[in-house]
Design brief:
This protein has 513 residues and is mainly alpha-helical. A two-stranded antiparallel ribbon has the order 1-2. It starts with 5 loop residues before the first strand and ends with a helix.
């Protein structure tokens, strides 16, 4: 197996990487948990509820996501313990399937997925910061450059965004730059920040669940949700799904509706793989990486299911978009999809919005720290292989962190904040993310076949059946999304495919280097 090499500062001669082993089991687990818990769990329940229109299927959506996430984390645990190097999924794909697939992953990750997620989470932070400082708003422009009109193409809506600097994305940019600088000063510093914010926001989510269970209980919601728990959950039930952005609806079966609903729950649970990006800096990675992946994902999924059960105890699933009260709007039509805020307002009244805004500030700040810390390690690994800009392969001479990679990531995330396109681009990559998860499941099979004698400190539980089940479920979801969410799937697929000519066009330069 090829050992990645670092490039020493000021020379082209390769050397062994000199990462500092600053991430223990606790910090590795908090990276998993912290990167998963962002703003999604507070809002996506509304969209899922509108798609499935069933209390049972709302919970089923999270259970399916939990099963898939656990199956994937078990597989990643084996590969990460086997190859504890900076780059995570990039390394897995490179060693198992070849450089093209690794490049396509890194290409998509840098172009959209990681900086786009960082930008989106940063703007979410700015949005909720505006609850405390009203002058922070997307409508408060410092420099408005352009309004891109909506462009409809075969069921997709492109454009429809404002380009420029407003006070909301200015706050986002400040947080991104600050967290990037913190992570330049050493992985231990970044890990400390991650630990503090992850413990805080995990406690806040558990408190949200407990408040829903014991203080926000609503007899109307309990009767509606648990008295009719299996409503619309049979194989004979039909669900109305909007076909792309056309406004046309079609009737689909229960399994297809559940697959389409996974967009929300899978997005809310994504980020668990981030710790593998920083595998080279994990202490005793053969033990700690599998434990962090499995324990971290299990904790988050259990909390997510508990939180959604608490939503159902506080609010009826079905609601009226024009309802005058929180109960009348229900989970489906909570104001701006802020289901968690609606639950807290049941208990604390108007002050509930501020309480929830503060919890989301903590959540998004900690989430971005984990994303920033982890993502930079992938571009570093790509640069080592000559697949990214050469300076990105350099470690900071004092702190031994991929400082240039962190700066490059922060710059591109800042551009996406200014462009206004981060939200659309992020939506478009959900399908691409699933494609790469499927490829990484196949990478596990390929590594078992190609390197049967390789040292495997941990072997994936349930192999091969859990991983086969994951691939079947993910392929089914991808097919459903291609059919019913073309505005999300086809652009994501196009972004991935555009990487193929780039890979071959740049190959002569890489081979000559």
């Amino acid at each position: 197996m090829r050992e990645p090499v670092a490039i020493a500062e000021g020379t082209d001669r390769p050397q062994e990487p000199q990462f500092i082993k600053g991430i223990g089991l606790t910090s590795a687990t908090t990276i998993v948990i912290g990167s998963m818990i962002g703003s999604g769990v507070f809002i996506v329940a509304a969209d899922i509820a509108r798609v499935v229109d069933s209390p049972a299927l709302l919970i089923a959506a999270w259970l399916v996501t939990g099963l898939m996430t656990m199956a994937a984390s078990l597989a990643y645990g084996e590969m990460a313990a086997m190859m504890p190097k900076a780059g995570g999924e990039y390394v897995f794909l490179r060693e198992a399937l070849g450089p093209l697939w690794a490049f396509l992953y890194g290409w998509t990750l840098f172009l959209v997925i990681q900086p786009g997620t960082i930008a989106a989470v940063g703007v979410a932070f700015g949005k909720y910061f505006g609850e405390f400082v009203p002058s922070v708003s997307s409508a408060h422009w410092i420099l408005h450059l352009w309004k891109v009109p909506p462009i409809r193409v075969a069921g997709m809506v492109l454009g429809d965004m404002d380009v420029g600097l407003n006070t909301q994305n200015l706050v986002a940019i400040i947080t991104i730059v600050a967290l990037s600088v913190i992570n330049v000063f050493g992985v231990k510093t970044g890990a400390v920040v991650q630990n503090i914010f992850t413990f805080t926001k995990t406690a806040a989510l558990i408190l949200l669940a407990l408040l829903g269970f014991f203080l926000a209980r609503n007899h109307v919601a309990i009767a509606a949700n648990f008295g009719h728990f299996w409503q619309n959950a049979s194989f004979h039930s039909l669900h109305q799904i909007e076909l792309g952005a056309t406004g046309t609806t079609v009737a689909v079966g229960m399994l297809t509706a559940l697959a389409v609903a996974q967009v929300g729950s899978l997005f809310a649970a994504d980020g668990w793989q981030s710790v593998t990006f920083a595998a080279a800096e994990v202490k005793n990675p053969q033990r700690n990486l599998p434990l962090a992946l499995v324990f971290g994902t299990a904790v988050v999924i259990l909390i997510y299911v508990a939180v959604n059960l608490s939503y159902m105890l506080a609010l009826p699933l079905a609601g009226d978009p024009h309802g005058a009260t929180i109960t009348a709007r229900g989970i489906q039509y909570a104001t701006e999809d802020r289901v968690a805020t609606a639950v807290i307002q049941q208990i604390f009244g108007p002050a509930g919005a501020l309480i929830m805004a503060f919890a989301i500030l903590i959540s998004t700040f900690g989430c971005n720290n984990g994303l920033i810390l982890a993502g930079a390690r992938v571009y570093y690994a790509m640069a080592q292989d000559g697949m990214f800009f050469k300076p990105v392969a350099r470690l900071h001479p004092k702190y031994k962190t991929p400082a240039v990679s962190l700066v490059a990531q922060a710059i591109w995330a800042t551009v996406l904040c200014l462009s206004g396109s981060y939200g659309q681009l992020l939506d478009y990559t959900i399908f691409a993310l699933l494609l790469f998860y499927i490829l990484n499941m196949l990478a596990l099979f390929a590594l078992r076949r190609k390197q049967p004698e390789a040292q495997r400190p941990y072997r994936a539980f349930g192999y091969p059946w859990l991983q086969i089940l994951y691939v079947i479920m993910a392929v089914f979801i991808c097919v459903a999304l291609l059919r019913f969410k073309p505005q999300y799937t086809w652009p994501g697929l196009i972004i991935v495919l555009l990487g193929i000519p780039v890979f071959y066009l740049t190959r002569p330069r890489r081979e000559a280097a």
